[in-house]
Amino acid sequence: MNTSRGEIWIADHRRSSDKPVAVFIHGAGGSHLSFPAALRQLPSVAPILVDLPGHGASAGPGRGSIADYALDIEALLDALSLDSVIALGHSMGGAIAQCLALEHAARIDAVILAGTGARLPVNPALITGIVEDPRRTISSIVRWMW
After folding, report:
1. Domain 2-118 belongs to what topology?
2. Where exactly are the structural domains of the chain?
3. By the 8 A CB rule, do 73 and 23 touch?
4. Which residues pair with 106 in a beta bridge?
5. Rounded CA gap, 120 and 118, in Å?
6. What is the pLDDT of residues 17-40, one digit of tens each?
7. Ordered alpha helix ranges (H), the chain
8. Taking a C-beta distance cutoff of 8 angstroms, is the pair 44, 19 a contact?
9. Which residue of 17, 44, 120, 145 sits 20 to 30 Å from the alpha carbon of 64, by its own alpha carbon?
10. By three-state DSSP, how is residue 15 classified?
11. Residue 3 backbone zone (phi > 0: left; psi -120 to 50: alpha; other: beta)
């Protein structure tokens, strides 16, 4: 999807205009596939799953801040002409959803958070593991994601 901030890959599963739109925002290092299939197919919402810049199928570099990712989601909402959505975020995606709700409250009908918080400190051992043994460290992260 082309936005004012560049291309963002999405899986747009809106089939009916009578259901609320839910934008699924994954965590750091993840993609739209980070959400379990059952969650991606909730029957009560019209889901749009996002691959944030620098993640999954979205090209380009990752962003330097949560606020920058929130601007990407805002640009996506503009490109899709969506005035109100549910923001569903996991981990870093939850921080992005919270930022959206604070900065763009008129567009966010509800926020659903999973495995996140207002602050997301990163254990220094995790950074060391990514540098020294990325395969093992990422495998450990994936096991603990859900």
Report:
1. Rossmann fold (3.40.50)
2. 2-118
3. yes
4. none
5. 7
6. 789 999 999 999 899 999 888 887
7. 37-40, 66-79, 92-103, 124-132, 134-145
8. yes
9. 145
10. coil
11. beta
